[in-house]
């Protein structure tokens, strides 16, 4: 019996709906296997728990407690009032790229062309992803030091690269050692990722350290991704970027941004500078995926670079004071704490408590309402440590130390 269209509407199940044949083999995974195996960030899991609790002092999130300086916000408001609500050039507004290259030369030492060697990105996060996707072929190995920022390993894997962590230790102030890099390098190694000053340890590289690593990169003909997002938050005399060492400019992409030093995390804006062929390859992906970084944020970024040095320095000084208080506090409590050279993190050792870093962080949160991040979230070598961000007001830091003391006393770890 044939079925008319009107009948079909009223009796769809019986007469019209044929079970469609599966167009894909049932065994084919819906999610790409290399994404399915990625773990979710340990930090986010922990903060889901924190968000359900009251009166928590958070030393957890790596985000400035300062609001972006008023003049930066005003520049954005003014650009909005003038109706600048459009796409910019894919590479970023040329005025901003000029400001970046001028600033970079002044502060970090390298000279780059705003026209061809600089790209404005949606955070350093996007910049690193672009670089990994632009440079890696499946199976290429990437060396990076660990403990490290939680995104490095997934960023490499999402680009079909093979992450090769090189462990760093408190013995060497968490600075990566060339002997360890030498043990890990193979003919398949293509990239070396560096992040100093470091998240989560606060470690920093001296000029001598940079020269040794540069020599290694040149010897093995590696490309280097140098994430210098915390460089403005240094508490030792800053040295120029590793990219300025002879033989390094042509093989290095430097990433920096506004999130940390200018307290502009929500603006989602950063930049990368490097040799034209590499920036151009990153730009191809950026133009098809992002088009450009947020236009309004670009106006704020120009104001940050051109006119906000005093505000940036005031924040850095405040972090330095907090660092001194928190490092002394942990050491006085018997939790040995390395003196960070930069960023806004301390990485005290909790091995003496006999707890794993997850146990320590979970119990501290539940019992004393202080949130710290288990070191294991930053890689295996972070076990035995916790990360505490001092991007938190001084009185909160002091109160957190009081609560940690109470916690240790309660567990008979301190008298
Ligand atoms: C080492 C490091 N790189 C990059 C980022 C991401 O920065 P952005 O906000 O510019 O994406 C972070 C954020 O915590 C970080 O710690």
Kindly describe this structure:
By secondary structure, the chain is an alpha/beta fold. It folds into 2 domains: 42-67 and 310-410, Aspartate Aminotransferase, domain 1; 70-307, Type I PLP-dependent aspartate aminotransferase-like (Major domain) (Aspartate Aminotransferase, domain 2). It is built from 15 helices and 12 strands. The strands form 3 sheets. A 7-stranded mixed beta sheet has the order 2-8-7-6-5-3-4, sandwiched between helices. The protein has a 3-stranded antiparallel beta sheet with strand order 9-12-11. Helix 10 (207-219) links the parallel strand 5 and strand 6 (223-227). Helix 6 packs parallel to helix 12 and helix 13 (309-332) runs parallel beside helix 15 (394-410). The protein is globular. Residues 1-16 have low confidence and may be disordered. The structure holds pyridoxal-5'-phosphate (PLP). The site of pyridoxal-5'-phosphate has 13 residues, from helix 7.
Features:
415 residues; alpha/beta; Aspartate Aminotransferase, domain 1; Aspartate Aminotransferase, domain 2; 2 domains; 7-stranded mixed beta sheet; 3-stranded antiparallel beta sheet; 15 helices; disordered N terminus; binds pyridoxal-5'-phosphate
Strand order of the largest sheet: 2-8-7-6-5-3-4
The geometry reads as globular
Helix content: 40-55%
Task: Label the CATH architecture of the largest domain.
Answer: 3-Layer(aba) Sandwich
Give the class-level CATH name of the largest domain: Alpha Beta
The separation of the N and C termini measures: 89 Å
List the domain count as a whole number. Answer: 2
List the helices and strands in order: HHHHEHHEHEHEHEHEEEHHHEHEEEH
What count of helical segments does DSSP give?
15
Q: From the 3D structure, determine the CATH topology of the largest domain.
A: Aspartate Aminotransferase, domain 2
Q: Indicate the structural class.
A: alpha/beta
Please describe the biggest sheet, giving its number of strands, its sense, and whether it closes into a barrel.
Answer: 7 strands, mixed
The Cα radius of gyration reads: 24 Å
Q: State the fourth-level CATH superfamily of the largest domain.
A: Type I PLP-dependent aspartate aminotransferase-like (Major domain)
Q: pLDDT average, as an integer?
A: 92
In the predicted model, the low-confidence regions spanning at least 5 consecutive residues are 1-16
Instruction: Catalogue the ligands.
Output: pyridoxal-5'-phosphate
The count of strands amounts to 12
């Amino acid at each position: 019996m044939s079925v008319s269209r009107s009948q079909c509407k009223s009796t769809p199940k019986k007469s019209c709906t044929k079970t469609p044949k599966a167009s894909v083999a049932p065994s084919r995974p819906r999610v790409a296997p290399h994404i399915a195996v990625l773990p979710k960030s340990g930090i986010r899991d922990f903060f889901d728990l924190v968000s359900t609790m009251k009166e928590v002092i958070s030393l957890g999130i790596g985000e400035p407690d300062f609001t972006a300086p008023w003049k930066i916000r005003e520049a954005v408001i003014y650009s909005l009032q003038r109706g600048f609500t459009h796409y910019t050039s894919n590479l970023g507004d040329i005025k901003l790229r000029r400001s970046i290259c001028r600033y970079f030369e002044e502060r970090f030492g390298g000279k780059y062309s705003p026209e061809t060697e600089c790209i404005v990105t949606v955070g350093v996060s996007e910049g690193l992803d672009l670089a990994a996707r632009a440079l890696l072929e499946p199976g290429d190995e990437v060396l990076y030091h660990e403990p490290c920022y939680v995104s490095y390993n997934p960023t490499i894997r999402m680009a079909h690269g093979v992450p090769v962590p090189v462990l760093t230790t408190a013995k060497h102030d968490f600075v990566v050692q060339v002997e360890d890099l030498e043990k890990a390098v193979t003919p398949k190694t293509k990239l070396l990722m560096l992040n100093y000053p470091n998240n989560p340890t606060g470690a920093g590289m001296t000029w001598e350290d940079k020269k040794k690593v540069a020599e290694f990169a040149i010897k093995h003909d590696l490309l280097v991704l140098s994430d210098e997002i915390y460089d403005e938050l240094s508490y030792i005399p800053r040295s120029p970027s590793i990219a300025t060492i002879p033989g390094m400019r042509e093989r290095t992409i430097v990433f920096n941004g506004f999130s940390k030093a200018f307290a502009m995390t929500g603006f989602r804006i950063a930049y990368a500078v490097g040799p034209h062929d590499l920036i151009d390859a990153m730009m191809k992906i950026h133009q098809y995926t992002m088009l450009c970084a947020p236009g309004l944020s670009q106006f704020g970024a120009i104001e940050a670079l051109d006119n906000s040095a005093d505000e940036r320095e005031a924040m850095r000084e405040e972090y330095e004071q907090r660092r001194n208080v928190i490092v002394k506090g942990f050491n006085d409590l018997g939790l040995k704490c390395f003196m960070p050279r930069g960023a806004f993190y301390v990485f005290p050792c909790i091995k003496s408590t006999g707890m794993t870093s997850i146990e320590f962080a979970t119990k501290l949160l539940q019992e004393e309402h202080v949130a710290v991040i288990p070191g294991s979230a930053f890689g295996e070598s972070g076990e035995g440590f916790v990360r505490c961000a001092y991007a938190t007001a001084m009185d909160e830091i002091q109160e957190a130390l009081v609560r940690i003391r109470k916690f240790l006393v309660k567990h008979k770890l301190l008298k």
